Amino acid sequence: SQTIHQWPATLVQPVGSPLSLECTVEGTSNPNLYWYRQAAGRGLQLLFYSVGIGQISSEVPQNLSASRPQDRQFILSSKKLLLSDSGFYLCAWSVRSSYNEQFFGPGTRLTVL
Amino acid sequence: LAKTTQPISMDSYEGQEVNITCSHNNIATNDYITWYQQFPSQGPRFIIQGYKTKVTNEVASLFIPADRKSSTLSLPRVSLSDTAVYYCLVGGDSNYQLIWGAGTKLIIKP
Predict the structure, then answer these.
(1) Does A90 contact B at CB distance below 8 Å?
(2) What are the pLDDT digits (tens) for B47-84?
(3) Which segments within chain B are labelled E, that is strand?
(4) What are phi and psi of B78, to 5 degrees?
(5) Upstream peptide bond of B7 is cis (omega within 30 degrees of 0)
(6) For the segment B19-58, what is each residue's pLDDT rounded down to a tens digit?
(7) How far, rounded to the nearest angstrom, does the alpha carbon of residue B11 sit from its chain's CA centroid?
(8) Is the dihedral of CA A71, A73, A74, A77 positive or negative?
(9) Are A2 and A104 in contact (CB under 8 A)?
(10) Which residue of B has its CA nearest to A5?
(11) Chain B: nearest CA to A93, how far in angstroms?
C-alpha cells in the first residue's frame, strides 16, 4: 500500500530564517507530487506540483521554492521566511494519469514569529 | 478555468441526510468532479469522484445533473464524526487546471 510522510509535524521559526520541509511517498512510482498551503480557517492553496524528477511548476509566485531530487521525494524550501508564510503545509501525490484523486500527507504546522 | 462555489457552512443533526452543493458553471468537457473531507490538523481525504449522473460508494453519493454545472455530495444518516470541512475539486486534464472550492464547514449536532 502507498504511504506518504511529511516532516516535521510542527515547526516554529523566526522571521528571516530558512525553511526546509520534506515529503516522501512509498509504495508507488512516478507519482505527481504537490505542495499546498492552508492558512488558518481557509481553503487549499496549491503552491507547486511536479510530474517528475527535477520538474517543478509554480502556481503562486512567492519566496518559497520546491525541488524533487528523487522520484518519491519532494522538498519545500525558503531562504527567508515571512510572517505570512505561517500555515499548514500539505504534501500530496496522485498517480501520473489522475490529477483529481490526490492522497495527502499528515501536514506540517509552520508558525513564523 | 472552472471556478467553484460552495456554501461556507452548514448545520445538521445526527441521523439526517446532508446535501452539499458545489457550483461550477464553466466546467470543461474533460473535467471530473471530486469531493474531499478534511478534519482539523489533517490532510484532506478523498470521498468520491464522478463525471456525470450519479455515483455511489460506501460513504456517500454524488449527483451531477446533465449540464454538469453543479454537483451535490450526499451524506446519508450523518453522525457527529462527519463534522468536517468538505471540498469540491474540479479538473482532470492537467495539474494546473485543478480548481479547489473554498470548502464547506459541516457541523453535525446531537
Answers:
(1) yes
(2) 999 999 999 999 999 999 999 999 999 999 999 999 99
(3) 9-13, 18-23, 32-38, 45-50, 53-56, 61-64, 70-75, 84-91, 99-100, 104-109
(4) -70, 155
(5) no
(6) 999 999 988 888 899 999 999 999 999 999 999 999 999 9
(7) 15
(8) negative
(9) no
(10) B43
(11) 11
